[in-house]
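Database export, one record per block. Field names are fixed; values are copied verbatim from the stored entry.
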Amino acid sequence: MGSQGTVPFLLNQLRPLGKGGAAFTQAAASIALTNGQPQTIVDVLHGRAFRYYAEGLRQYLAIRTGSTERADQCLAKLRAYVAKTESNELLQPPGVRARLYRAARGYMHNQSRPHQPPSKEKLEELPWRALPSAHHSTSPLNGLRFDLSTEDSELLELRHARELSIEELAFVYGQSADVIQERVNAAMAQAERILTAHGVSDASRFGRVIIEAFALEPAPRPPGEGDETVEPLSNGTIVGGRYSIEARVGLGAFGDVYRAKDTEVPGHVVALKMLHQPAHSKSAKQSALRELRLIASVFHPSIVQFKDHGWFEERLWFVMPWYDGETLQSRLQREPLNRAEALSIFQPLARALAAMHAAGVRHQDVKPENIFLARIPGFGTEEVTPVLLDLGVAATEAEMVVAGTPTYFAPEVAAQFASVESKPVVSNKADVFALALSLRNALEPETQEDVAAGAVDTFIENRSKETPHGPNRKGLNYLAPFFNRWLSLNAEERPTAEELASELSALSLPEERRERLKTILRWTIPMALALLGASGAAVTVFYQQAETQREVAQQAKLTASDLRRDLADTREIAEQLELRYEQSRLTRTELAKRLARTDGHVASLKTQLKDEERRVVRTREKLAQNRQEKATIEQHLSETERDLSAAERSLAGAKQRLAATKQELSAEQERAVRIQRRLEREGERRLELQGEIAALDARLNAELSKSQDLQDSVARAVAARSRAELELEFAEEELKALRERSAPRAAEPDPDAFMPSERSPGS
């Protein structure tokens, strides 16, 4: 439940910042003012001085002695030195840092046995920092660690890695500033020769390389370490007449968090926060209530709420719900979050920040240590509710105070502590930056920055001018344009917390694409099967037609074969779309940038998707209408075929009648022969017989004309059948065209997302 980690920085924006530990002095001033006791700034500095510089001192002592154990022994002496030294004496110029390093150097050189520089073998055994950020090789670092003389190495370490000014170095060595400057210049010249020999020729990188060269892995914070001047409450202590202290569970810069039992409600456990500094005056009490008022001004399920408060030995305490779970920082020590987990955690946090900002409150210390993953009974063992903790350094919009942990500073916050000329206004966008950086570190914990060698001032200077990059791991690199916007150097280019909550849906884009693809396949494959079945039926019908329709039937078979190939191609749609997506990287990047730059564009895309779905529905309705028209055409074709069959039967009857007429004609011809014979015998009757022959010829011509009319009727029926078949073929082609136009739109709702040069038959 508590907030652990580096000591938070605070800075009153009305005060100028200088070098030589001024950031720490300004932080102490702001702490004192926040507590309503400006006269206690010296005591605040005294109480926190050792903890602030402890890591840098430890690393310096370990490198100079070649042993982390001896460094810890010297640290214990330094702790005692700080405790017994008067505050005013400790803070005399050139300041706390110079006096601490002078005392540390004195302890090393005034031991019972003469101080001997550590051997190269001893130095190689030290836990050097494993991630050099300034180069691709440890060769330049080892050159500075092992090839420089002991005097030059110590001077460069104190000047660059421990960030002592020339005036502070002069105090530490007991020499004039001019002499120290000459010695530092000579040591720097020797270091430049070594770095150049190892391939580092960029002078602007020399300072960073020296910091890396004298950086050890930071020591883990002892679990029991708290404020040196405050004793923890003992177990069993009753606070507020009802809360029994069970254990201290969190250490903070301004207060500690305890697990406590509510004696008035059996089985009820709470988290109780007790501030370190007592409030003796009315103004001090009002100032101590500051965090409580800020918590009370905001309500959101992902912001810690308070339940009770009071005073214990003039120190403010307040009670919050007790959550079972762990901090996000503890969770990340096991493994990084996947995208789904990150979305479920960070989207509620973004909305919680939006609620804070709407209430006029800026959190100022968003980081994984202050994000608690609470497991609430009844929500399942795998479900967690993220909760923002520790509003101890939060500020209202009217307060001219900035705060936070340096590694999560937004550039405009770092600029308040850095030596840059422009001091941008710190706004709520600083919280958005810190939350986005926490997300980046949750997805890729190995990319989390640290303060090399304890050089906080140098880290802050760099952060004021540079921003961290997005995730690089495969499967996450598509998020780079989004992180470029969320972690922008210019606060105006970042989204608000509410906008960030919406844009975080980008974490689920790959799954959404896969679901859309599955939906497309679920719709496309049955449609293709239905078309295939319809085509097969058409093939069967055409195959049973007359001999003159075989060519049409063959074409139908080819169409059915094409549809079968289309079905096979449809099964490969997923692979084709994935390949096109990879091949169209430029289009994807431009789309992502456009999505990241345009506020609310995600909602617009969802609207477009709904429009596309409506178009698909309309296309399906059109397809159903065309199917109905096809059925009507097929029915008309069937009726035409029945008419053709009737015409064929009529033609057969006409042929039979023609045959009968021919037989009659033959008989009449025989009769004419007999008549001619009779004419020979009966000359007087020749004219009458010729008339009968002419009548028979006229009758024959009439029958021939009737036969020709029947043949014309058959030809017209065949032509009508051909026209009906052509109309059916045109209808099938129109259905195919409609299918080709509708399938790509369903495959990708955003017309700008994919623009392939050509389409496969089954796309």
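Remark 1: The radius of gyration is 46 Å.
Remark 2: The longest helix spans residues 601-681.
End of record.
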